[in-house]
Amino acid sequence: MRLDKNNSEYSKLAKLFHWGFVLLFIYGVAKQVEDINQLEDTTFFRFEIIFALIFIFLLIIRVIYMKTTQKTSIPEDTPRAQKISAKIVHNSMYILLFCTALSGLVIGFLFWLEYKNSFLINIVIWLHEIIINLLYCFVGIHILAAIYHRLKKDGVWSSMVPFMKEKKY
Ligand code: HEM
Ligand code: HEM
């Protein structure tokens, strides 16, 4: 299919948000809290809280920007079920990214309130971990879908991914 038949190409800012968040998320996972006792370190604790607050702030700006200015590059003639699935996966990733940082903040708040070994904090840590694992699943599905579109050469891949772009005719 010709590339110029696409609905859209994402703006530079949309791409910056998308790839910036991929890096931010990888960084957040790489420097994850390994053990709750690490939060006793005040500098580490403060950094975690500030990181999560900035993460949520940027995410809200991203969602507002994306929903008001951009539209999916999935071609018009894509089956309805596939369009709906893409919407569900994208929105689920947004919700899970938000809930990851929010549940982290709740853990921080309970820790600050001295509920360090309480049943409540263990429940929230458990929720935090479930949310992150669900997010891994959705990101996995999302990447598989992106590769599927690359193989299909319908322009969806090239609208967002800066490498292995489809050739323009
Ligand atoms: C965007 C922000 C955050 C990201 C991406 C993130 C990421 C992670 C990841 C990947 C894990 C490991 C999950 C697993 O093993 O399945 C984890 C665990 C955890 N996180 Fe976060 N986190 C964030 C914010 C926070 C904040 C703000 C706090 C608290 C101040 C926090 C406290 C914890 C704790 C206590 C654990 C469990 C550690 C243990 O296994 O004992 N997280 N986080
Ligand atoms: C943490 C990892 C990732 C997250 C959370 C994520 C999230 C998203 C979201 C929410 C969208 C919808 C557009 C938007 O609102 O920005 C999107 C679009 C897209 N992403 Fe990702 N993404 C991730 C990684 C990747 C990777 C690794 C690839 C490719 C190798 C990729 C390829 C694409 C493509 C091609 C689109 C356009 C889809 C369309 O127009 O319907 N993403 N991504």
Question: For the report, how would you describe the main beta sheet?
Answer: none
What portion of the residues fall into strands of 2 or more residues? under 5%
Total DSSP helices: 5
Radius of gyration using CA atoms only: 19 Å
Shape: elongated
Mean pLDDT figure: 94
Give the helix proportion (percent range). over 70%
Distance between the termini: 9 Å
- Write down the domain tally: 1
Spans of at least 5 consecutive residues with low confidence: 1-5
Bound molecules: protoporphyrin IX containing FE
Oligomeric state, counting identical vs distinct chains: single chain
Structure description:
By secondary structure, the protein is mainly α. The protein has one domain. The protein contains 5 helices and no strands. The longest helix has 34 residues. The protein starts with 11 loop residues before the first helix and ends in a 9-residue tail after the last helix. The structure holds protoporphyrin IX containing FE (2 copies). The site of one protoporphyrin IX containing FE (HEM) has 23 residues, from helix 1, helix 2, helix 3 and helix 4.
